[in-house]
Amino acid sequence: MNIGLIGLGKMGNNMRARLKKSGIDVVGYDTNPAVSDVADLPALAAALPAPRIVWVMVPAGAITDGVIHDLAEVLDEGDLIIDGGNSKWTEDFKHSEFLAPKGIQFMDAGVSGGVWGLENGYGLMVGGTAENVERAMPVFDALRPEGPRAEGFVHVGEVGAGHYAKMVHNGIEYGIMQAYAEGYELLDAKKDIIKDVTGTFKAWQRGTVVRSWLLELLVRALEADPEFHDIQGYVDDSGEGRWTLEEAIENAVPMPAISASIFARFVSRQEDSPSMKAVAALRNQFGGHAVKELD
User: Does residue 166 carry a catalytic annotation?
Assistant: First the structure.
């Protein structure tokens, strides 16, 4: 089995290593020549036997769009492109329609696992035809976690479905992380009786209903820096949460937990939140509650 892999960053490079470990021949290309196997995309195409499979693992948006357009110039009819980045699902329709007249097949793959995927495997959600899924299954089996296929891989539906499922996955992830974070803040604030915040989270890792891999990662972070002294309270977002809310509004699906988690991230980016100033002023007006004045 042969595959081309474009984008050899943190995830892409680990994916290349996991694929090779499973006996799949990988030809990798990256703009960084220090990690690239070939000099350019024409060399990538030349190094792969036809019909080719090329996995694109680059940042979503203009970069992914550019790579797919460039690949269309060097690939042939019958070749298959898999977009494994965090593209918005609506982009998949555009890419599939662009490639169709050239006879180039397209699939989208939502990938979860981050930098731990090399060791643990990647959760995969794919969209495309059943024929293309079967064709690329050795690749999916190499990347997914060990164990039952259905617990680490799903053919969600046609093109676009994989990235849609990954979008919802990431929206749920936002909500779970926010709940853990709020629990941490409350425990940390109650130090008169809570003497071991890190130990409390660690004790939840087995047997409790809130145990998860995200909880394990939080414990790891707390053990390294229990008070998060070295971390600024600024949280970015990569888009999937916003897209999830857009879909929730479009389909009239209530998402109070996920929407609150995204808005909480926005608050983190304000050094002195104007809305919180307004809340403080209102509380002072109607209840005489004290306000903290600026120095």
Answer: yes
